[in-house]
Amino acid sequence: MSDIGFVRADLVPAKPAPNRTSGAMAWAQKNLFATPVDTILTLLGLLFLTWIVPPLFNFFIGHAVGPNGTVEECRAIDAGACWAYIYSEMEFFIYGFYDIPQQWRPNIVFALGAMLFVPLLIPKAPFKRVNAILFLVVYPVVSYFLLAGGVFGLTEIPTEKWGGLLVTLIISVVGITLSFPLGIILALGRQSNLPVIKTLCIAFIELIRAVPLITILFMASIMLPLFMPQGTTVDKFLRALVGVTLFTSAYMAEVVRGGLQAIPRGQYEAGASLGLGYWQRMYFIILPQALKHVIPGIVNNFISLFKDTSLVYIVGMKDLLEAVKTKNDSALEWQSANTATTGYLFAAMVFWVFCFSMSRYSMYMERRLNTGYKR
Amino acid sequence: MTTLDTGPAAAPRPSFFNDPVIRGIVYQLVVAALLIAFIAWIVGNTATNLAAQNKTTGFDFLWKTAGFDISFSLLPWTRASIYWEAFLVGITNTLLVAFIGIVAATILGFTIGIARLSSNFIVSTLATIYVETIRNIPLLLQLFFWYFAVLKAMPAVRDSIVLPLDSFINQRGIFVPKPIPDPQFGFVWIGLALAIIGVIVLRTWAKKRLEATGKRFPVFLSSVAVLVIVPAIVWFISGASVAFDPPVLERFNFKGGLQLPPEFVALLFGLTIYTASFIAETVRGGIQAVSRGQTEAAMSLGLKEGDRLRLVIVPQAMRVIVPPLTSQYLNLTKNSSLGAAIGYPELVNVFSGTALNQTGRAIECIALTMLVYLTFSLLTSAIMNWYNARVSLVER
């Protein structure tokens, strides 16, 4: 006799198959109908979509008037977006009042800019230093002479005629390029041991950050001419640039300061123990590390600046938004119920494409820069 | 015999030109001198320019009659009012739109931020689309859209769109009935005040009891009940009533009621929708910053879902959320200055716009405007520092 009290005589009944973990049904079960509340939310969401998507589709595509349409079609009762209006006014939206036969000049500037800027964004592209110098030093000079003219037999085109996307891009690119060195100097000043310099930098940064850009532009537009010696005229474009640069440099300083504070103290001390002076220490050791950290922050600053350029209408510049608004208000031959809406939607799409791609780029850089520090 | 100096060698004195202390002083003197020279140059230029334009300076204009109209004002305003009053009207209008905007943007932003974290695919996708669309379009463009493409495109007064509750929407804005509480209504306010005091007492008592005996008291539900029931009883007993003055269409415009001008509505919409997208990101970041271990620890202590959120997750998330949230509030207040572009009479519009153009006192007007924003900013950062000191983790 053995001690075994229990011997299973038959097979354990098979358990039901586990829930699917892959495939469309399983995905829907997990992401759409996990709980009763989830199901209700899903249904509400679907209802919302069926309510909002067809009208939007009809407005943008279905009933919209294509680029070759006429204004009569745009005035039809159930007409959607009037893309014909955008198509016919496109030149104004891109170049403003820039002389039409001369528009090849901004085109070259756009093309050159893209050729120099895109490799700068790709981390693996070679010749970074040469590329950066070309883009930051040579390119602005070339572009200025190309756009303004007056030399080498090019017709002179005053900045009052510049407008549209051209102005938006110039102001944001020049603003960010000029505010970068200013921001670094302000950030270093804020970290300085010298009380006078530190106080000045803090006062400047905090004052600028406390007030809205619109008041700074007001100041640039009304007070800058007062501050200059009698007889000097300050170009409107220059006023806008000064205002935007001052404003952005304060924000840039805060971004750079974040990078400076992320550098461990040992790095400063190591530099000092090698006998390097302050500027050598900053140039060779601290800034190269700090600036690498803050690339995403700089891109984010650029995004805000790009959006904020829409405020330069204060000083009387016609940037993209102001160009669209001007046409919406004045293009009587295109007047219809949807003209203004279409114009603003077009401007919104242009801004969105730029800002969204930049924000994706900033996220990509953030991921790339983070890898080195993960353990 | 020679004496050996065995003590620590004094650091060799660097030469006069290389001494960091002296260099520092020299640098600062140079900077200060340059700054003073620069300011003197600017002041000199300004004085000459102003003299050439026959303009005077000073703040005496603040007590002169303004003589212009302001389309929307909470304070009494007539053309005979003085510039100082215009300044105050500007500030109150800015604060009004900022305050309502902050409340609305917080509610919308928190909802969307939480929705982005939802496990429900449709909900989180819709929230993501909202955030990514709104964040990447300039606020000014959104204001133009709301003002020119939506509200100004509303039908004329005669064909107003009728909304429920006797409200109308047309080109001139939104018209809603105006509540006119009768004198008895004061008692209801007193009742409400008493109820609030009662809730505070109740909470203190409930907390004490919880710490002493471990017994829980349904604080939230009872607080809501007290807040609703007490004023309701007072209302019933005192017989207070609220009369509504509905807007009535007359020959050319609505009479009576409360008119919300389209500038105000557009600015409020724009600010709320734009800022909410940033708040949503802040909220999402804050909740994600609380590590999953905290949830698991709370579960292993046997806390229920609600308590887990209320006692463990939210307090830690708030520590991360609040500083950027206040900076968003400040941004909203600063951004309300864009109302100037669509004609809402806020501070910049009234004071750096109309008043400046009428008086020609550019420096004074812009300086006063900036001073107001600077004050808001300093106040906010002072409150923030106090809050941060209070909630920061105290480690050993």
Question: Summed up, what is this model?
Answer:
The complex is a heterodimer of chains A (375) and B (396). With 375 residues, chain A is an all-alpha fold.
Record keyword descriptors for this entry.
A: 375 residues, mainly alpha, MetI-like fold, 15 helices, B: 396 residues, alpha+beta, four-stranded antiparallel sheet, two-stranded antiparallel sheet, 65% helix, 7% strand
Task: Tell me what you see in this structure.
The complex is a heterodimer of chains A (375) and B (396). With 375 residues, chain A is mostly helical. Chain A has a domain at 85-97 and 161-370: MetI-like (MetI-like fold), CATH 1.10.3720.10. Chain A has 15 helices and one strand, in the order H-H-H-H-H-H-H-H-H-H-H-H-H-E-H-H. The longest helix of chain A is centred in the last third of the chain and has 32 residues, at 339-370. With 396 residues, chain B is α+β, with helices and mostly antiparallel strands. Chain B has a domain at 83-158 and 260-390: MetI-like fold (Orthogonal Bundle). Chain B has a four-stranded antiparallel β-sheet with strand order 1-2-3-8. Chain B has a two-stranded antiparallel ribbon with strand order 4-5. In chain B, strand 2 and strand 3 (173-176) form a beta hairpin. Chain B is globular, with a radius of gyration of 30 Å.
